[in-house]
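Hi all, long-time lurker, first post. I run a small reading group and we've been trying to get comfortable going from sequence to structure in the token notation. Rather than ask abstract questions, I figured I'd post a concrete chain and ask someone more experienced to write out its structure so we can walk through it together at our next meeting. Sequence below, copied exactly:
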Amino acid sequence: MTAIRVNGKTHELQDVSEETPLLWVLRDHLGLTGTKYGCGISECGACTVHVDGQAVQSCVTLLSEIGDSEVTTIEGLSEDGSHPVQKAWKELNVPQCGYCQVGQLMMAAAMLKSTPNPSDDDIDAEMWNICRCGTYPRIRAAIKAAAKEMNQ
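-- Answer (accepted) --
Happy to help. Here is the structure in token form:
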């Protein structure tokens, strides 16, 4: 049996291989389906979650790599959608199809912890997640709005 801490709760996993990608542990074993499968090779960012506050791609992060770390999914970013990034995404109507947006939100939230007042260049360098709909200008605007709220 393996234990994993996700969104502030410890979960006991039975009959789950340590080599299972974190994405499938979250979705299939814990029922946390907010994290999306995109490419499976860490190229698109749709599966981004936080491990001890750092953005990681859950499709290539194995359960064995988690250990005692705290995993945060979109469901744990805030219970009511009140995280500044979530609020900015909604206020600025960022999503188009929405598929990549969970990964975008999680990447942005992690970036704002380390770069609280990002420039356009910072955002372009850190936000490498793919958005096939091309909402990058709205993503950038939402990140700046969230940063402003977080810095007040």
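A couple of things your group might point at:
The beta strands are 2-6, 9-13, 48-51, 54-57, 70-72.
The radius of gyration is 15 Å.
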